[in-house]
From TrEMBL, chains A, B:
Record-given protein name: Xaa-Pro dipeptidyl-peptidase
Entry function: Removes N-terminal dipeptides sequentially from polypeptides having unsubstituted N-termini provided that the penultimate residue is proline.
Keyword Nucleotidyltransferase: no
Matches recorded under NCBIfam families: CocE_NonD (TIGR00976), PRK05371.1-2 (NF003781)
EC number: 3.4.14.11
Native species: Lactobacillus xujianguonis
Record keyword Cell inner membrane present: no
Active site: S363 (charge relay system), D483 (charge relay system), H514 (charge relay system)
GO cellular component terms listed in the entry, alphabetical order: cytoplasm
Length: 793, 793
């Protein structure tokens, strides 16, 4: 398994020496040292757990240089050079690998090559020895962290605690801040909103974790995570809406309107700056923030309107939500008032902040980064938005249908709003807010319009992609290509706009579902983020903007292979069109002539069978006899060469339903018995990554080849037959009326290996995502007017 | 769900007042305060997150006293009393419950009753108010911890950091130690062993976590965990032995002998006492230890011989292992040398230790408590042994058969020894030890004798139950009644001896598999352990020895019900005998007359089916047609009244096999469609328990009624037909020869609810535990000579 590394910055020898001396690793007078003494010294320096020279010396006997000699014995002969094998036998131990179990003392570099670990050859003088150690300290250990971070986890950098300044090594910030003394405090930002309509501006609770060193005058950047879940989650899955119901006539649609809440302008900040009087009880929810906090970056969390400790109503997705999230940045940047408590008596300032703010977070937390970025708020320098929604319609709806995020059948915007309305848990707020909250819930439920599933002004107000012109900060998007919760369309569509803006922009696509990627084996994402935030928020010229390709895409066959691309779009590939034949083939040679039918039975058999949605999906795509009945399937021959599908495949279908309403689904599936990657990464060393020195841990993980499966879903899409004329407006439909539908499927980057074939499945009810009608409907497909087009590399 | 509480010590009013004043909760001059001022003050004191009186006052508006009044409004009227409902509406919020979602403001005490939370009524004067708060601070919150521990997690007790003394509240130690400054160090204890036969006594690495306050002269007790896994785990499941093989003729047995390793006596300690020079890199592995570390108890971990950082070979289960674990206590008690590093140059003493040592840990770590306790070593005052092995034969063998621990098919003692031989990861040790290790592995493999499965001198040396007379410390055993890894016989059989020793002894039996119980909803085990260790290791007279019943057993129908018993033995119940009939019934009325047969097919169908062992077991006990074929089953009528089976059921079977060898299994199963408890506890608030102040967390959990199942295994046993004469000696067997076997099944405490029935299953191959022969064998049971006897309440 390759430990790929993109965050290592090429460094000249002079700089290597300087940096090594600055961190007290290399003796200042190193030129006076013999080769063997220096070798011993540098190995000992890495043994941060041994506190005396005697203790360090004792440990040299625990290293093997060859199959018959320990490092202690080797050094006793006062060598003036060290062979590549000898050096890396020791180095691999320092990196946490185990002799015999991981690598062979006879050939360490063979193992290093397999793991993509860098080797410095011919260590025959002190300069080369220094270079070898510089590179080694920057080499990823078995636990995924660079050796320097492993040493940090053993306390190496506590020697610099209290120096009150940032330190850097190879362009990245070092954990030189006293994490025992982190300040954790709570303040209340005054917004311009009055969502609870009490005539007073809503206060929003903000939690800050910042280095103690900021009390001694150091100013630091803030990593701000707008997390609606921070105050707690109201569990309400049991109230999820009924999905076992018939479709309605979509022309009942009445274009529900978004209506803005009242505004109560807050005053501008005055001179007062009292210290915070409340300590944080909530915790940082993201290891990447903790890792960076140990390195000097403050972590700031705020739930926003409606969440615990804050005023107001949770109007999920609405402009008010964006505003409340944005205004926290205004306070961080010095442009807005915060109070020490909810009585609004004393103002308190973010005087510890250097005015440069980055945002982090996944899912809803990533979504709010997109939202805030579109406001162009002053102080926001960069966002690292993971698995984010770019339009709420694309989260809960698709092409005129109610479509659930994976594993969330029946969930909708109103329920998510309830989930986050955690200020109901503060009984004082509860007494005041409950009636207004109930009214808002009713309004959300009505306007989200589960009846017709159509786009409307209500959803338009929740589409951030219409405001990308406002974006001024640099941009990193991260998304899982198998994310069926926040589907890839969300990142793809905003990427098409962001990539044309005059801002730095990057995209990472991994093989996970709705997941982070900061602790994968195959890429040093955490180190990249260190480099990035140092560049964007501290202004260090560390090459971060040119260090790695614009688009990085994890391979779906080999998890430790990352494709380096300039873009993610159709035009990465060549157009190819396949046609269904009368005999259920999918070929490039031309269409079938028949009209073929299937009868959809809704959720009838599924609910009777008591199987999970994912079980259903697997059986369905595999072509299991029982489950594949209500579908048409067309399959290619086995591929002789691998083919990579890029961008958004498009399916055209001419279809008629037996009722005056209908929903059609199309899926693209890879068929072939093979061991595919695990759906979620496997944990490799639980808690094995130290984020600082005794300051929380994270776990290395990676997608791994797993047990044999028969098929894998590549992409799919769903559409309301009544949207045959316009995706944003329903039309009348007659029973039996043929209509032409054009599906843009979820975007992908998927390699079909040789030996597998590709199948197009046309069906209706998707048990895990669509409504599941109670009535049967027969769908007839005109094969002569049906095709699939995609772009392939 | 009941939050039962056993660790609350009844306290008189005078003592309540004293304790509340001592922790700066109650103002010294409280008698000068008005009722309403004192009520406000005490609520504010619990709000440890608010640091100023202003911030605390602001928060009073967040509490509701009634459906229409906040606490702030209520207090504004200067009340001279508070109603029970009003008080507990506030109290429940303080305990972390949520208005509307958890309880109803109109009737808080109804909720409290359901959760078994104590209520102090009629709070009409200051004395009653004080009592109500004293009880409230000692009441378990929603997260399972008492409110005082929740406040500790918000930093309440940091005001006492640096005072260098223990503090107690309601008989339990308080977290008043500065956990930011915990000392984590490593020393090397010199043993009397030379298991690696290098002529030098083996050193054993010991890791100590102790309060910084011990450097200022405070002496503290040590909680010692002997953990062979502490240095790391060598993953070797892939080398597990083959179990798909035929039985052998057991008379090939040759009684393999245990042979002791050489001894090299260590010198006695001298005067030298250097500070440790190595810091710990490994971590505490048990939240209970961390919880107690914050409360002043040092945590000491040692892997023992053969583990990382230590010399020697891992001879699992052997007296050498016991010795190496015991000698750490001798150092803690001042009776043995430890060095600062492996060069043995400088001695270092446990001068921070008050000489009182307790042991903690589960599984192998619990096993070593039993082992060490039998030595009667000075300094060891108590053990809390969880899910421990009391005889290694009972872990890997049963009645002349190779029987695997659950989910460990093919594992054996040699492989466990390899798992723990983590000093092979130190390359210096590897070079030296590997050849000796290989020889030892060969010896273990031979002598464990997977061929015959018989008891021998080798196993006799690994049976701690023959040495219980040496036990001098007090004793707590904890075991899961569904532990099929370390089966309940292990705890049952040693309990029968321990209960007759002149020592304090307790037993907890929970409904888990191989699990801890320190964070269950249904019992305050962590608090009990606080009380216990304070009593045993600090000598505080806190009633710990009389605070809870000798034997506590969790109910298998209602997880929040604990049976309070004097003992766990057959004689808790009345004997009852059931007989199998010719028509597959199980009745009290008399035997069938037939001889009935089944043909065992070994693992043939199981391995072909590619299902998990647990899937097999569930289908098998349910009577699934395919899987139940190779068995005989006899079932009672549905029970009209619930019946509790206690102790060890006994099954007598007259059986003949078609081969001159054979293995027979018997299982007792409850049949009935109902929602049974989850197999493992459900996590309720992940990470919601603070172990100190920003010092690690634990998660509240409990067994919960789960989805409907058809059957549940109560107990089972397996036997080699060749042991029909003697459990410790095989006999010749002829094909077709009838023999009488008497099975003692695993002990239990299992309530069969009315409506369920009881089934006796007689079978041979147990896919998850026995060998799985390649050849068929037909077993004929003489029903006239077959019966099951058990004790019922």
């Amino acid at each position: 398994m390759k430990y790929n590394q993109y965050a290592y910055v090429k460094t000249d020898h002079e700089q290597e020496v300087k940096e090594l001396i600055d961190i007290n690793f290399l003796p200042r007078n190193y030129e006076d040292w013999s080769f063997s003494d220096l070798l011993a010294k540098l190995v000992k320096m890495t043994l941060a757990e041994a506190k005396s020279d005697e203790a360090k010396t004792a440990k040299l006997a625990e290293f093997a240089v060859t199959e018959s000699q320990t490092l202690a014995d080797f050094l006793a002969d006062k060598p003036e050079k060290i062979g590549t094998n000898e050096f890396y036998n020791v180095a691999l131990q320092l990196l946490g690998y185990h002799v015999h179990y991981d690598y062979d003392l006879a050939d360490p570099t063979a193992f290093m090559q397999r793991n993509a670990l860098p080797v410095v050859k011919d260590i025959t003088n002190v300069a080369q020895l220094i270079t070898a150690f510089y590179r080694l300290l920057n080499t990823r250990s078995k636990n995924g962290q660079i050796l320097l971070d492993v040493m940090a986890g053993k306390g190496y950098f506590t020697q610099f605690w209290g120096q009150n300044k940032f330190m850097f090594f190879n362009g990245k910030a070092l954990p030189v801040f006293d994490t025992n003394k982190v300040i954790r405090e709570v303040v209340y930002v005054e917004t311009d909103l009055d969502t609870d309509q009490d005539g007073k501006s809503d206060l929003v609770q903000v939690t800050i974790f910042r280095p103690r060193e900021t009390t001694a005058g150091l100013k630091v950047p803030a990593l701000y995570t707008a997390s609606p879940y921070f105050g707690g989650i109201i569990a309400n899955e049991k109230r999820n809406h009924k999905v076992d119901e018939n479709l309605s006539d979509a022309t009942e649609w009445n274009d529900p309107q978004y209506v803005a809440s009242p505004i109560v302008k807050a005053a501008k900040p005055a001179a007062e700056d009292k210290p915070a009087t409340e300590k944080a009880v909530h915790k940082s929810s993201y290891p990447l923030n903790e890792y960076l906090l140990a390195r000097g970056f403050a972590s700031v969390f705020a739930g926003g309107i409606g969440t615990r400790g804050s005023d107001g109503l949770r109007i999920t997705g609405a402009p008010e939500e964006t505003e409340s999230a944005k205004e926290v940045i205004e306070w961080l940047h010095g442009d807005r008032i915060a109070y020490t408590d909810r009585t609004r008596k004393h103002e308190t300032k973010a005087s510890w902040c250097n005015g440069n703010i980055g945002m982090t977070g996944r899912s809803y937390l990533g979504t709010l980064q997109i939202a805030v970025a579109t406001t162009g708020v002053a102080g926001l320098k960069t966002v690292v938005s993971e698995a984010a929604i770019s339009s709420w319609y694309d989260y809960y709806r698709e092409h005129g249908l109610v479509i659930a995020p994976e594993d969330c059948q029946g969930e909708d915007l109103d329920l998510l709003a309830e989930t986050c309305q955690s200020n109901l848990w503060d009984a004082g707020s509860y007494l005041k807010i409950k009636p207004k909250y109930d009214a808002m819930q009713k309004d959300l439920l009505t306007k989200e319009d589960r009846t017709t599933g159509q786009y409307s002004d209500y959803w338009e107000a929740r589409n951030y992609r219409h405001h990308t012109d406002g974006i001024k900060c640099s941009w990193i998007s991260v998304h899982g290509l198998n994310d069926w919760n926040v589907k890839p369309k969300n990142v793809y569509k905003i990427w098409q706009k962001v990539k044309n803006l005059p801002i730095k922009h990057h995209l990472f696509l991994h093989q996970g579902p709705h997941y982070n990627m900061n602790n994968l084996v195959s890429i040093d994402f955490t180190d990249l983020m260190n480099l990035w935030f140092v560049h964007e928020l501290l202004g260090l010229k560390n090459n971060a903007d040119k260090q790695w390709p614009t688009v990085m895409i994890q391979d779906n066959l080999e998890a430790d292979k990352w494709h380096e691309e300039k873009d993610w779009a159709d035009d990465l590939g060549q157009e190819v069109v396949y046609y269904p034949t009368d005999s259920q083939e999918l070929t490039k040679d031309g269409n079938g002539k028949e009209k073929q039918s299937f009868t959809d039975v809704g959720g009838k058999e599924f609910t009777a069978a008591i199987i999970s949605e994912s079980d259903w999906q697997y059986k369905f795509i595999c072509g299991d006899e029982k489950w594949s009945k209500p579908s048409l399937r067309f399959t290619t021959d086995e591929f002789i060469h691998p083919v990579t599908i890029v961008g958004r495949p498009e399916v055209k279908v001419r279809v008629a339903g037996s009722l005056p309403k209908g929903q059609l689904s199309v899926a693209l599936v890879e068929l072939g018995d093979r061991k595919r990657l695990t759906a979620t990464p496997k944990f490799l060393m639980r808690g094995g990554q130290e984020l600082g020195y005794r300051f929380g841990t994270d776990t290395l993980q990676e997608f791994m080849p797993d047990k044999l499966t028969k098929a894998k879903l590549i992409t799919k899409a769903h559409m309301n037959l009544q949207n045959y004329q316009d995706m944003k407006k329903p039309s009348k439909l007659e029973a039996g009326q043929f209509v032409d539908l054009t599906f843009k499927l979820q975007p992908t980057y998927y390699t079909i290996p040789s030996g597998s074939s590709l199948a197009l499945i046309i069906y209706s009810t998707d048990q895990g995502m669509t409504k599941r009608p109670l009535e049967d409907e027969t769908y007839t497909i005109d094969l002569a007017q049906t095709e699939i087009k995609f772009y392939q590399k």
